[in-house]
Amino acid sequence: MKIKRAVTQEEELATATKITMKALKEYFGLSPSAYSWILKNVATQLAHAFTKTVTEKELDEVIQRMMTFWNTYGLGEMDISSKEPLTLEIRNCFDCLGNRYGVGEPLCPFKEGFVKTVLDDKLGTNVEVKEIDCCGTGSPICRFTVAGLLKQPQI
Ligand SMILES: [Zn+2]
Questions:
Q1: Which of 18, 39, 55, 73 has the most C-beta neighbours closer than 10 Å?
Q2: How many domains does the chain fold into?
Q3: What pLDDT, on a 0 to 100 scale, did the predictor assign at position 155?
Q4: How far, in Å, is the centroid of ligand 1 from the Cα of 142?
Q5: 146 C-alpha to center of ligand 1: Å?
Q6: Could you give the strand order of the β-sheet that contains 77-83, starting from the edge strand earlier in sequence?
Q7: Residue 135 C-alpha to ligand 1 middle, in angstroms?
Q8: Ligand 1: distance of its center to the CA of 6 in Å?
Q9: Helix, strand, or coil here: 52?
């Protein structure tokens, strides 16, 4: 008899997130900016599902939890780039790998939507997440600033 490994809800969500990013990339191609609201909306739904698994409520813990989710399942290496303003960076992004480097526009409204939703859901904020560097514009790292937090992270 085969022993089936238990798949956690979080792992399922990570897989769903990867499949969704890949599908969106195939559907919208190398120039997604005109459809950024769709990418953000889809990411929002997945992020709502993720935040249901998150019991943490403090800013530092929520950021840590989100980074752990991102880093554990091969979505990319998410880290804090600077604290004031909070800037998150993603290296080796699952979404950007491949043929999208330097296409001339930011490619990551999906991640903007995901990060915004996680923070807003858990902290009751209405933050604005904006991608300022992207592999799509020739940067080796995608970076996202977060405006509108009630306090700055300590981690
Ligand atoms: Zn990017």
A1: 39
A2: 1
A3: 83
A4: 4
A5: 15
A6: 77-83, 86-91, 142-147, 128-133
A7: 5
A8: 32
A9: coil
**CATH number assigned to the domain comprising residue 31:** 3.30.1380.20
Domain interval for residue 86: 9-147
Q: How far is the CA of 105 from the centre of ligand 1 (A)?
A: 9
Ligand 1 center to 3 CA (angstroms)? 39
| Å from CA of 61 to ligand 1 middle | 24
- Does residue 33 form part of some domain? yes
CB-based contacts of 60: which residues, under 8 Å, 6+ apart? 153, 154, 155
Residue in this structure with the two tokens 């195939």, named with its chain if needed = 26
Mean pLDDT by 10 residues, the chain (155 residues): 76 95 85 86 97 94 96 95 95 77 85 98 97 91 96 87
